[in-house]
Each structure stands twice: as C-alpha cells, then as structure tokens.
TrEMBL record:
Domain of life: Bacteria
Name under which the protein is recorded: Glycosyltransferase family 4 protein
Gene3D superfamilies recorded: Glycogen Phosphorylase B (3.40.50.2000)
Amino acid sequence: MNKFSGLHLTVEHDGELSSLSKPSEPTIALLHCYDLIDDFLDSLNISFETFCQEFVGSWMFGYINALKQVGVRTVLFCISARVDQPSRFTHVPTGALICVLPASGIYHTYRAVRRNSLNLYGASDVQSFKDIEDDSTIRRSLLTPIKDLVKSLGTYLSTPLSLLARELRRENCQAILCQEYEYARFDSCVVLGKMMRLPVFATFQGGDRTQSFLEVLPRRLAFRACTGAIVATQTEIRRIQSRYGIPSHKIARIFNPVDVTTWQASDRTEARAALGIPLNAKVVAWHGRVEIERKGLDILLEAWQQICGERPDQDLRLLMVGTGSDAEQLRQRLDTMQLKGVLWLNEFVSDRKIIQCYLSAANVYTLPSRQEGFPVAPIEAMSCGLPVVAADAPGVIDIFEGGEASGGLVVSRGEATSLASALGRVLDNEVWGRKLGQHAKYHAESCFSPEVIGKQLRDVFMNQRIHKNR
C-alpha cells in the first residue's frame, strides 16, 4: 500500500510499463544517504507532498537543476518504509522524476528488533532519579558505539539492491551518484555498480567520518573501486587522500550550484516594512536547519548578546529563519537569555520569496556553523547582495578564497567574540558593508551558477573521467 497520499503518479509492478518510454537524454541516478527519506522529512517536519511540490532548499535539487541546464536528466531514488512497491512522483519545481523504493524486507525486521530493544537501555522503575542522573554520562558513553554500529547496519540493510538494479535499468541510468561517501549506502552502491558495470560517484556534503567500525573496511574498498568523488573543499580532499589513498585523478573539485538568478534582493524599504523593521535598524540574518551544535547557533546567540551589549542605544535585529530537531532547545535558550531584537520564524520555509524578504531586509548575513559540507545558504545571501561573516567550517574557506574580494569575512569556529567583532565591523560601517555585498554578488554569479557547475558535472559523469575545475 502506498502511504504517500495525493501525489502518486504510477505504481509499478513486475512487468515493464508501457507508459514509460526510455529517455533519449543521458540519465544520472541520484541516491540520498539516509536509511529512509522518511527520516530526512521527519527531521524537517514536512510531508512527502511538500517535498515534491515545494522543496528546493537542498544540494540535491541544485545538482538536478544544474544538470538539467546542460541536457542531463536526473532520477532521484529514495528509500521509504511508506511504500510497498516502486512508486513514481514528480518534483514540481525541477520536473525531475522521484522514484521511491520500498526498503528491503530484512530492514523492516531490523527496525522492529531495534524498536523492541530500546527498553533495554532505559532505567528500571525502582531506580531513583539521582541514580539515573549519575549514570547518564557513563551510559551514553557506553551506548554510543553500539548505537553507531546499529545505525551503520541499518543503512546497509535498508537498500533494496536487486530492486534498485531493476529500476536503474528501467530508467536507463548511465551512472550512480551517492549523496555522501562516508555513509554505508555508498559502499552498497559501489558493489551494485560493479555488478551492473555502471560508474559510481559520491559527493561530500558534510560527512567526514565513518559511522562505526563496521564501515571501515567496506569504505576503503569502496573508495578503491569507485569511479570518482566530487568534493568542493581542499580540506576534505586532503583528508580522503590521506585516509583512503584515493588518487588525485579520481577527485573532482566542484562547488555546489546555486540558482543565483532566483536569489535576487527586493527593495530593502519594502522588505523591512513587510517585517515591521524600522529603516534605521541594523540587521543580521541567518537561515537554515536548527541544529544548535552543528550550526553553531549557541555561538550566534552569545555573539548577538555581545553585539547588543556594546551598542545599547542602537536598534539591532537578528533575523532567523528555519526549524529542526533542536527547535525547542533553541526556544528555551532564547527565553533564558532574554535577547533583544531576535525575530525567529520557527518553521520550514519552502517559498523562496519569504526567505528573500528576510535577506533583503538585512545588512549582513552570518554562518556560525561548526560543521558544514559545502554550505549553500551563504551563497544564496551573497546572490542577494549581502556581505557574509562566517565561521571557518569546512567549505567556508573555499567559498571565500579571495577574502574580502569574495564578499566575506571568515572567523574561527566556536569563538563568539570573534564573530561578534566581525559582525560589528560590518554593522558599524554601512558603506564598507555595501561594497562587500557587491563583491559577494559578483562572486556568487561568476562561480556558483547552475550553468557553470552543470558543465563540470556533465564532464565528470558522461566522460567518466575527472577534470579539476581549479
């Protein structure tokens, strides 16, 4: 039974579908790294319907759009526990086909066993709260390796390889692209690619370590056997060369694409009027997924507290757009810290016009993240003419290789004082901030457009050889 209501276009059975003709254009298969696409959607609190109808804020649809610009078709393959047979949907913003496959039968057994085993890790009814509190740190440290091992096993088991092979043939895919190489699905796809004689590639979107020891040997073999890796950052290139011995000719340094033509600032006066922000206010913006540790939101709030404390007579605003797994924790921090001028839209926003309104109202954009793969959010802000103050998470330094000429200031991760100082410099010098914003806009348009990135990706996938873009 298909549980994705309202969107289902075609449910396939064992026979060939006469309604589907094989495409004439070259076709790439794109696979996400999660056990299930359900996990990703649940973390954002959005439905699959929203994903198909509206979702664009992801590297995967950036890739799909870039490849479409250069005549390459992409099929996004997703694994789900909510379908029991292959099901096809259309991603409305890009027109891409989404093929949803049921998780393998053994994976459902694994999930049931894992779910029933959770009570083994809980405290007994007779334990006191103090006992639980004293034991919590030890319990977490002991259970973390077990949980990581279970997670690795789940990703291996979730991929229905025989069914995926059938659908790859049906869609006439000429290559496989995995979202991340530091996830178990990459290992499985390399094995499948060898069996089907298909080239297999993987990208770097932030995963920079194996999940558990179970993946160590398969990952080394997968790197040896894969066709290539697409990596935007020099730091990550050095890491995989050192750890896995992957030769340079297998690595393509390609940035994530951003549709810069759709990220254009509107009139600041109108944007601020819509948000109820005075024209004389000084505004910092951030948007993304609310994950406090990874995204450095604790650092941002601490920096904002310093900025406001040093400028008590100024009208200062911090605009935050997005939600995520740590939304409630962020709300509690905001309530505790009693920060002034914070306007937080705590919801998943798929309408770019809404995000653009917030960006258009700002003087500067910030990215305080501790960990990133290759962040798209600051490039969206740059396309809107905003200067960027960012922490030196992986990928950030590569975006701003030209320093201020690239439109950004880069500070050390985890240092609220450095972040506050750099943001303060931009807020206090509006003329300089506008100049930085002009540099940022030019840099975004010349380096990250879908046409530029699409050509580089097409060369990699279709020629099955690696060309460095720098």
